[in-house]
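Sample A.
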Amino acid sequence: MDLLALAAEDKRVHVFRLNGQRVFGVAKKEPFSRVSHVCWKPNGQSLAVAFGSSVCVASAHTGKIMYEKDYTLSSKAPICCLAWASNFTDIAALRRRMANLPGNVAMDDFLASIDETTSPQYAPDLPIELAFLDVAGFLPKLSTLPVAGSQ
């Protein structure tokens, strides 16, 4: 299924089939959020959209927002680049996988050829739940310590 994502002046991303049929749209609730970048996941299953200092990831199958994060607290500057990356935590296992391939294969060519749905043995080994884990939400809220020496 070929899809085309268009960032429009109405501060939305519209996704269309090549025959012109609109599939879904992605937008932020805040009226000042302008679309700054759009990036398809290499397997085509997700679409990442940057709005100023926040990012939304939408499913290409349903159009629903799967992930949303505002990075305003981390950085006051708007997002200037958006890209997808594979997370391989076990480098030794990845090297063993690549050693079984015929000839010399560049890492970029290897990663571009991976279809996670039909080649699960080459899929990234970091679970998506771990990749999207917001650690700050799980940390305990500690009270402030009293100032020492105030007696």
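Sample B, a different protein:
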Amino acid sequence: MVELRKRPEPPSDASQPPLKKSGSSTSAKPRSGSSKTPTPSLDRAEESRKPAVGDTIQLEGFGGEIETQDGEKTNLKKLVDDSKSGVVLFTYPKASTPGCTTQACLFRDEFSPLTATGYSIFGLSSDSPKSNTTFKTKQRLPFTLLCDSNATLIAAIGMRKSPKGIVRGVFVVSKASKIEAVEPGGPAATIEAVRRLVKSARASSSERGTNVVDARETPKDENSKAGNASLAGDDSAEVRADIAAEVADTAEKLDEA
């Protein structure tokens, strides 16, 4: 008699190994994807934050370290601490170009009246100390020029262009760390913003009965003479500002070149 034998049945879990491989590969993808996505979103959030008038900022570490045209290291906190009422930063794209020269000279000519209430004025750009030293010397600028080669402070005050470059404008922060002005604009617009603040400060001082230094009593150097004429009601500065604004519209194209 022939004995019939049954074939052994295949193991029921023979298909399990590939399922495990498939499961492990699918679970690995979300982990790798999730580790990459948060970074760009955080960068975009960082870029979107810009200062606004009325904000109170934390000066410690704000904008990082910069240097003067003489190569001295400094920062915004130190500048504010050393001022009487606050700091004015006017930003310019490139030293010694037509629009930037017009802007710097407007601040030069009205330096005395603009600083009469205690503001300290500084020019701010990404130019090298050498370029800013030449600019300051040639134009006889009475204020310090700040060199922000990495544009960290420029970006912090909202005056950096994307992807690169500098917006012409003005930023003012008070002694109490409160932003009083943050305004892009041409040469005439930037100085006008500071004039309004000085006028307001004078009015407030008068109401409190406090004394404000009169620019007409400052030393009679060339810069203060020009400022005194403006303070006394001479409208020549206003005329120069209007002409400068028209010149700046054309000069801006040269700045971008």
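Observation for Sample B: The CA atoms of residues 77 and 251 lie 33 Å apart.
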